[in-house]
Amino acid sequence: MALVAAGDGSILSIEPATDGLPGDDVQILLSPGAIEGTGWVFEYEHVTLEAPLSVGSQVSRGQTLRQKRDISGLYESFRVI
């Protein structure tokens, strides 16, 4: 199952998952705030993004971020932070 962007934005960070499971934790800034470094951030956990997506890449709502799961049975989680 493909994973798609929840909204238009830019990739803020891509860091290895902190819980020991495979994949990365990816944060996408959906709506910048009035103060530098603030805004609505959507976080995906346990994913590996498609090339050439990287920090700073612009994404569009519905854009494919990854075509399939990294490991069968492992779920991705996402949240607004």
Description:
It is built from no helices and 7 strands. It has strands at residues 3-4, 9-16, 24-32, 39-47, 58-59, 64-66, 77-80. The mean pLDDT is 82. The strands form 2 sheets. It has a 5-stranded antiparallel beta sheet, with no helix packed on it. The protein has a two-stranded antiparallel ribbon with strand order 1-6. The protein is globular, with a radius of gyration of 12 Å. By secondary structure, it is an all-beta fold. The two termini are 24 Å apart. It has a single domain (3-67), classed as Beta Barrel (OB fold (Dihydrolipoamide Acetyltransferase, E2P)), CATH 2.40.50.
Strand order in the sheet with the most strands: 5-2-3-4-7
Q: What structural class do you assign from the helix and strand content? A: mainly beta
Question: What is the top-level CATH class?
Answer: Mainly Beta
Order of helices and strands: EEEEEEE
Provide the domain count: 1
Categorize the overall geometry. Answer: globular
Mean pLDDT: 82
Relative strand content: over 45%
- Structure summary, number of beta strands: 7
